[in-house]
Amino acid sequence: MTTYITTPIYYVNAMPHIGHAYTTIIADTYARFRRLCGDDVRFQTGTDEHGEKIAQAAEKEGVEPREYADRISALFCQTWPDLDIAPDYFIRTTDADHVKVVQDILQKVYDRGDIYFSEYSGHYCKGCERFLTEKELKEGKCPDHLTVPEEISEQNYFFRMSKYQDWLIEHVESNPEYITPERYRNEVLSFLREPLEDLCISRPCSRLTWGIPLPFDENFVTYVWFDALINYLTGIGYPDGSCFDYWAGAEHVIAKDILKPHAIYWPTMIRAIGLPPYRRLHVHGYWNVDETKMSKSLGNVIRPHDLVEEYGVDTVRYFLLREMSFGRDSSFSTEALEARRDSDLANDVGNLFSRALTMLAKYADSTVPALDKDTVTEEDRVLADALEKMVADYSVAMNSFEFHKALQSIWEVIGMLNRFIVTNAPWELAKDSDQAGRLNTVLYFLADSLRLLALVLRPVMPSAAEKMAAALGLKKELAAAKLDDEGCWGKMQAGTVLHQGEALFPRLGKKKKEQPNKQEKGQGKKAEEQAVAPEVDMEGLITFEQFGEVELRVAEIVTAEKIKKANKLLKLTVKAPEERTLVAGIAKHYSPEELVGKKVIIVANLKPAKLMGITSQGMVLAAKEIDADGNERLVLSTVAGDIAPGSRVA
Ligand code: ME8
Fold first, then answer.
1. Is 106 inside a domain boundary?
2. Which among 435, 461, 486 is the end of a domain?
3. Is the domain of 113 the same as that of 50?
4. Is the dihedral of CA 383, 387, 393, 394 positive or negative?
5. How many separate domains does the chain show?
6. pLDDT tens digits, residue range 179-238?
7. 408 and 265 in one domain?
8. For residue 11, which atom of ligand 1 is closest to its CA?
9. CATH at residue 600
10. One domain for residues 221 and 348
C-alpha cells in the first residue's frame, strides 16, 4: 500500500514550539509505523510563508519578507532532526515550483467557471487568515485569537465552494474514517447543515503584495489558504511528476484550529481540480501548558530543542505520544514528563532490558540459548499469546492514531515481563544443574520478548529502539523487519550474540531537578507494581539510572569543630558550592585543623538527619580499613586534581 502523510505547513511568524513538534512527531511516527507494515511511504512537512501576518512580522524586524521567511523556515527545518523526525520532503510556499502549481490550478479552476469576481463584506480575522461567519464569532471576537475581526468590504475573486456542498456532505457521511476522531467529523457535518458560502481567494495588490499573483488578474494575489493547501499537491509533483501516485494514499494531520480549511475548503478545491479526495484527515487537540493556553505574551511557550537537551529525544517523543489522547486537549508539565520518564521509561522498560541482558550475560554467556521445549509451561504460553495480542492491538491503535492506546498495550506486556522475571527467578534456576533446560527456556523467552519490544517501539522512539536492537545483536535485522513477518512469537534465533550496551534512558540535564526519594516514589505505585519493578535488582545489581540518583559532589571544608559529648563526631561547614553543615564520624581519625581547606566528596542529595541536635545536610565519603586486630582506620575520599567546589562526581 502507498501512504502519503503530511503535517500542516507552519507559519513563519513564530518559532517552533511543542504544538508544532507534536503534530510533526505524530506524522513521523505514523510514517515509520506504515513502513514497518511494508508500505511505500512519503512524509512531508514545510512552511507557509505568504500573507499579511508574515509581511508584517518582517516589517517589524526591518527586513524583506523573503529574508525573514528564509530565516524562520530554516529554524523549522533544523528542528526536526533533533526530534528524530525525518521528512522525505520539506516544502516552502515560496518555492518556484509551488508558485507555478498554484497559478496553474487557479487558471484551471477559473477556466472551468469555478472562480468569479464579486464584491464582499465580512469579518476578517488576520490570525486565522480568513473571513469568519457571524455564527463563528463569540461576543464579536474570533474565539481562537480573542481579537475583533476587521470589517472588510472590497472586490475580490471567489471560489464557488457552495457548488460542492452536497457532494461533500455525502462523502463525509458515507466515509466514517474520512475525518477522525468522530467529534470533529460531527463538527464538520453540523457546519455543513448551514448553506456554504463561496470562498474569497484573493487580496488586491493595493493591500497585500506578499503573495502569489493571480494568473488571470495581475492586480490581485491569492489569499493565503488557496496557496497553502495546494502545498500538498506540489510536494508530490502535481500534475504528472513521478511521485504523484502518492496522492492515492494522502492522509493529513492537523490540530483542531485548522479543521475548517482542511475539512471543507480543501476537499471542495480538490473536487474542483478534478482529483479524488484525500484518504483521511486526523485532527488532534491542543497542548496547553500547566493548564494554561501557551502564548508568547504569557512567556510559557515550550521549545522542543530545550526539552530534547534536558530529557533526550526518546523521552520527549514518548511523553507527547503517551500523554495526549489523540483528539483531546492535554496539559504539558515538566512534572508529568519527569514522572513518565522515571516510571515508564527508566523503571519499567529500562530496567527490564538491563536486568534481562545482565542475566543473559551471566547465565548464557551473552548468547541466546535454544528453548527447551520440554520445559515450556502454561505461563510461558500465556506470555507468548499476550505478546502476539499486544502486536495486534498496537497495530489497530497505531492505524487509527490512538497512540496512547498503542503504548498502553506495550506497557501491559512490559509489566508481565517484569513479573515473569520475578516468578521464574533465573538466579535460583542457575543454582540447580537439573534446571538448566528451564533456565534456557526462561532466558529465550526474555530475549525474544525484548526483540518484539524493540520492533514495536521503533516508530515511537527510533533512537532507543536502535540501541535495543544493537544490544540484541539485531541492528540490521530489525532495521529491515516488517511487522507481518517478525511481529510474532519465536523469531529470535538461538545463538544470536548479545551486547550489554549503553543505558537506554540515561538521565540527562542541564539542571538537576529534585528527585523524589525511593520511598516517596514507591508510595504512588500499586504494591503489585513495586514487586514487578523493584528498585534494586534481585541480585544486588543496580542500573545506571539508579546510580545516577545519588548526587555526589566535591565539597571544600571551610570550618571544622568538635561536638560536645560526641567523641567520634565533627561538625563541618562545607562549600558545595552553597554552604551547608555536615556531621561526620571522623573525629578519631582527623583533627579539625587538618581538615580545613580539604576537598572531599559528599552525597549531596541525602535527606537531612539530626545528630546530637545538629542537622546534617549530606554525608562525607570515606574509605574504611579494618586490620587483623579489628582496629578501624578511615581515610577521607578526596579528588586528585584541583576542581571547583560543587562539581558533580560521576
Ligand atoms: O495554521 N497544540 O500554521 P500554524 C497542538 N499555516 N498543536 C499545535 C498547537 C498547540 N498548542 N499550536 C500549533 C497554520 N499547533 C497554517 C497551516 S496548512 C495547509 C496551513 C500545530 O503555524 C497544529 O498542527 O498556525 C496546528 O494545526 C498547526 O500547528 C498550526 O500551525
1. yes
2. 486
3. yes
4. positive
5. 3
6. 999 999 999 999 999 999 999 999 999 988 999 999 999 999 997 799 999 999 999 999
7. no
8. 22
9. 2.40.50.140
10. no
pTM above 0.85, yes or no: no
Q: In the predicted model, what is the mean pLDDT of residues 627-643?
A: 80
**Are the beta carbons of 454 and 465 closer than 8 angstroms?**
yes
Look-up: residue for cell 530565516? 71
The whole-number average pLDDT for the span 4-13 is 97
pLDDT tens string 283-332:
999 999 988 899 887 889 999 999 999 999 999 999 999 999 999 999 99
- Probe ligand 1: pick from 22, 230, 257, max atoms within 8 Å of CB? 257
Residue 534's contacts (CB-CB under 8 Å, 6 or more residues apart) are none
Q: Using N-to-C axis directions, what is the helix angle for 462-471 and 313-323, rounded to 10°?
A: 120
422 CA → ligand 1 middle, Å: 47
Which residue, chain included where needed, has cell 523549522?
A: 76
**Percent with pLDDT over 90 in the chain:** 77
Q: Measured in angstroms, how far is the CA atom of residue 20 from the centroid of ligand 1? A: 6
Q: Is residue 205 part of a domain?
A: yes
In-domain check, residue 647: no
Residue nearest atom 27 of ligand 1, based on CA coordinates: 255
Q: Atom 30, ligand 1: which residue's CA is nearest?
A: 10
Q: Ligand 1: residues whose CB is within 6 Å?
A: 8-11, 19-20, 22-23, 48, 228-229, 231, 254-255, 257-258, 286-287, 294
CA distances from 408 to 189, 382, 390, 405, 465 (A): 32, 18, 9, 5, 17
Catalytic site positions? 17, 20, 125, 128, 142, 145, 293, 296
Residue 243 forms part of a structural domain: yes
